[in-house]
Amino acid sequence: MLRSLVGSEMCIRDRYQRRVRGKTGNTITLRANSQRAESTMRAPAAHVLLVLLISAACCQTIRRLSARVLHTVELQSMAVSTVHSLLVSALAGHCCVHDTPFTQSTMGEACVSITIGFMLWDARDLWVYNIPPVAPLLAHHLLSSFLMAVMLGTAAESTYPVCILLLTEMTTPVLNFKAYLEAKSSTSTVLYFATRWVLVVGWVYFRFFILLRFGVFVWAWWDQMRLIQHVLGVVIGLFLLAFNVTAFFEVVVPGIPWWPPQSSKQD
């Protein structure tokens, strides 16, 4: 599987190189192009800040609307994170399919800006309302937001690999639904049993396989990347690997294997 991933990524890189060289006269390498355009590869600060603020305002609006049916802060925060994860996953998926690696993408920048806005809003909620687990989630949100902001400010053409990582948000709705069933004391239902297994399978694919895909991407394109991209790629990859592995054993798999409830038979 790893060999297949590496081979497909190398083919994508080679096709991209041939296309760029065909346009520039095959004497200028991708690295030279990247260094020459370094000063222009920054997302417009005003646009990023505007999207970020709109994202945070929408999070607050969704929370107020969800308060009509969800009466705890934790459940309201889950509703916001679910909406965010669905939206960002859709935008990231579109960017991964239609965008070209290391070219600036307006949709990619918007996707990353929305995520930064949500994470800062959610970090504030975690701190103010002491929503557990506070420490690991705060570390995840603040470090991820900082790294994505640095990326937008110094290497905005890197939104493509970040969008690969944002596909991991697909596990969030399932994780939130699991927590909702636990809050409603529905842990002995078939629905809860199915949710746990879906979460395990989804976590392995979207958190581990997608992270592997990101690592293969960084490795295949390493020679074409600038120093700031090297640093961001390694730091983000190692941090998310540690976070995802820890969450897998602390949140996802405790109590495995799970079995559907047995219907009691009366004599």
Task: Explain how this protein is built.
By secondary structure, the protein is mostly helical. Helix content is 75%, strand content 0%. It contains ten helices and no strands. α6 (134-154) runs antiparallel to α10 and α8 runs antiparallel to α9. The chain is globular, with a radius of gyration of 21 Å. It starts with a helix and ends in a 15-residue tail after the last helix.
Determine the number of helices (DSSP H or I, runs of at least 4 residues): 10
Q: Spans of 5+ residues with little confidence (pLDDT < 50)? A: 24-40
Shape: globular
The radius of gyration is 21 Å
Helical fraction equals: over 70%
Strand content: under 5%
Order of helices and strands: HHHHHHHHHH
Structural class: mainly alpha
Mean pLDDT: 86
User: Could you describe the largest sheet, including whether it forms a barrel?
Assistant: none
Separation, N- and C-terminal Cα atoms? 53 Å
The count of DSSP E runs of length 2 or more, i.e. the number of strands, is 0
How are the secondary structure elements laid out?
Blueprint: H1 2-24, H2 30-36, H3 45-66, H4 73-98, H5 106-129, H6 134-154, H7 159-166, H8 172-183, H9 190-220, H10 227-252
Helix pairs in contact: 1-9, 3-4, 3-5, 4-5, 4-7, 4-8, 5-6, 5-7, 6-10, 7-9, 8-9, 9-10
